[in-house]
Please model this.
Amino acid sequence: MAQNYFSKNNDSLKFTTNPLSFFAISRVKQHKTQSFITSLSFFIILLLAVNLSAQTTTVTISTTGAGTWTVPAGVTGSITVEAWGAGGSGGGANGKNVTGSGGTGGTYVSSTFSGLVAGATYNLYVAPQTATGASGADGISGAASWFNTNSILNANGGLGGKSSNGAGVMAITTGSIGTTIIAGGSSSSATTLFYGTAGGNGGNGGGAGGVNSTSPANNATDTGNPGSSPGGGGGGGATGGGGCGCSTTGGIGARGEIRITYNTPTCITPIAQPTALSLTS
Model:
């Protein structure tokens, strides 16, 4: 009588009279085990690749004034720093049917810095918003924003607008320092208009300039509109007709800004997040 051999499959016993079936089943199990090990190895390699890939972080520093930024843990390569100066404030208006021109937008600069060490601290300055000039007077030029020192990376502020049917103002980049330097927007002349002209935009996609003022009614004024952050110039002011002996100011220029972009491996959690800003004054 032939000896019976059996194997378990799907929780039921099946008998066979062929002794070679036992070895065939063993080969199948061995093949499945090898396939599982190969798949597991591939998964582990893929997981390691994901964990070692870079994670990009951008820190936006909008608190104005002097401060510091500390390099987070895991950052040992390079950082890219962008900065905008403050926008210039708009020109005022003094008299009957008088208008001012807008201030220009703050300059944009950027540079990449290499050889950083985690824990190192850098000084910086974010330009505050630009106050208006005196009633009926020209606007005021905006302050610069800088990183490390103002001789390393520096974004100059915009120029103030002109008062009382003032000419348009051309934006400049003089004094700005960086690998990339882009001027803010210029403003248009208010000489033949009945409303103050708009301020210029902050450079390279910065904040919008303050929009045109309205044409005021008799014996009324319209203060220029403020610029938007970062770096938008203030709009010009305007006065109405009638017996108006009126006076007004242009709009406020918007503050500057600094943005810092860096990479860290995803398996490292940076300690200093996300602004790492410490005001010193």
About this structure: Residues 72 and 272 are 5 Å apart (CA to CA). The longest helix spans residues 20-52.
